[in-house]
Amino acid sequence: MSKNFRFLLITAFAAVFMSCDSDTKYIYPPAGVVNRITDFYFFDDGKSFIYLSSNMNRKYDFGELVLMEIDDSGDLVFKNSLLVPSIAGKMAVSADEKDVFVTTRDKHGVVRAKVAGKSGSYRLQYDEGTKDDYPDILKTKKEPYALALNEDESKLMVTHLLNGELSVIDTEEWKVIKTSKLKFGVTEILYDKNSGYFLASHRSSGNISLIEARETLEDFVVSVLQLPIDLPTKGFDVRSIKQSGDGELFYAVFQNTYNEDTYEYAYDEDTAPQIVTFKIEDKSLKIVKTLAVSGNLGEMAVLPYSSEVAESDDETVEDSDTAEENDVDETDDDEIDDTDVSEDQVETRAADDETTDDSDAAEADESKTSKRIGDLIFVAAPTDEKIIIIDSARNSVRDEISYKDDKKECHPYQLYTKSTGNTTGYLFVSCFQDDRAYLYSIDLMSEEFIKKIGVLE
Question: 331 phi and psi, to 5 degrees?
């Protein structure tokens, strides 16, 4: 075979290969698809929200970031969407609601989207100049998942499921500037403004990681301290961690279903899943109280509630003190006091229907302040097809949302809340494996204090 013929043959094969590669057909998700939703965010305007379809089942070649709006009739209306690299993990939104950061687990990195426009006409977009379906991925360590911004939002902290690393991204220069080691299996990370620390929970460690991240003249320094959780029962698997409404306490959803001898998960009647309330004191973890619940637990969300009182009576109510005074039986989930939040305790913003002039209303507003009472803690129990609702002030189960009798299955896992007033807010529920999500309105002063107002499917 001559050299010229061999060259022509190789060139022909290369041309055919390149032609086939360029003709690769991607499977695009429909606009507004509901496909393994892993995260939500509700805007401050009270009517716009976004959700993240992760494409965890690999049904398509992309995930999707979807913008929705609640119109004047109360219907959920699709606005627009962006493709994101599959498989999407979690997202974080900047305080000014202009930037959305999304992790991609199988592409091992982060993308950044923009929120353009104003309330009522928001639109998701990538920076100008993006030629492909999404901009270049900022590469990180493998399987990035949970993420959180620091206080001035100059740094984005990204955790990794596979090996438990922590990547620090400079949001201005848009590059990874630091990688540190955590315990593996990070499920969530949050920033505590009170202490200046980040806290991370783990599905495979009985620890909470306390992370200090600060900039020095020479470098950006990250130090990690592992704080053990001293629980009354054995096992470990922290699925979710959230901060209380006043920022003083933290809640952890603790599976407690891990067998340390066999290294297997065992969801049976002998396990003791629980909600742990703790605080950080002198770089140590102190458990304030625990509450045993039933079911295999998923994620949780926290909705604070408070009352309007005169400025002379604005002392806050601490959950730990309230629990001790009430002497709650932590293991009895059946005794639910329907008067946990009474009309004497809580006044909604619309409690006074009498008409007053603007000056009187202004004087009334100036003479009142918000008095914290506690938090509603929503905990997903997917195998039991329910959501457990806990009142932190009494450290007891207040109610639950059950899907067992619904015609359409729902195994809730991801939850998100948005406060809209002293006793009102929204609750999002992702039925992850069922490709469905519910939006609820919450009004503690209403007889039907949780009301379903929309379904995404």
Answer: -95, -5
